[in-house]
Amino acid sequence: MAAVRNHCVVISRKQSTSSSPKAASACRLPFAFEPIRLHLDQTRKTSGVSRKQIEQACGCQMSGHWFDRSQWSMPSRAHYDTMNAMFGNRLKAYDELFSEYKAVKLQQRHFAVTKDVPFTNVWDFKPVQWYPGKHPCEKPLELMRHIVSASSRPGDVVLDTFVGSGSTVLACVELGRRFVGCEMGQAEYAGAVNRLSA
Ligand SMILES: C[S@@+](CC[C@H](N)C(=O)[O-])C[C@H]1O[C@@H](n2cnc3c(N)ncnc32)[C@H](O)[C@@H]1O
């Protein structure tokens, strides 16, 4: 952890200053799964198979998820095999396409929660009780564990530009994440280092 005086890191995405929908859509991030979606949809079109026919054959109403960008999802192997047979086996091998899908997934911003952890807009964690020397803004370790595990993978680097008591960086150590931390207060910095070394 490095002590940084009067510096802070700001990461922001460029916002459109125009109200035109065209300019706004130009600022949007590209759809990451587009090559896969395009492969599926173009093969479907060149094979002359309608979405309705695919849904009938697959016994579900998932065509919007496989052929449109909104809420796109990778078809299961069984559904893929069904549509590939209808396309005269023009699709790539499932394993090949699935590897491409996994590679894109790994590059995407991670967010992993289960029904057993809080992930709605309001999170309920007990605040840290006062103790001598407590940082006035110390966040509960349990809360930081939740944030770090939901939004990063083991081995990832987590940046905390306001380390304070060190709850976030401690959660990182516990959960196998690397971290970069900044803290301008010498006493706070020393407190966080002590907490990490305990
Ligand atoms: C709200 S507290 C962080 C609390 C922390 N999340 C925790 O659980 O203890 C903000 C901390 O950021 C530090 N800080 C404020 N501005 C800073 C800056 N520009 N660079 C580095 N540290 C800064 C303050 O000294 C303070 O300890």
UniProtKB/TrEMBL annotation:
EC code: 2.1.1.-
Signal sequence residues: none
Keywords assigned: Methyltransferase, Transferase
UniProt enzyme class: transferase
InterPro entries cross-referenced by the UniProt entry: DNA_methylase_N4/N6, RM_Methyltransferase, SAM-dependent_MTases_sf
Pfam families: N6_N4_Mtase (PF01555)
Ranges where the DNA methylase N-4/N-6 domain occurs: 99-188
Keyword Transferase annotated: yes
Family: Belongs to the N(4)/N(6)-methyltransferase family.
Protein name as catalogued: Methyltransferase
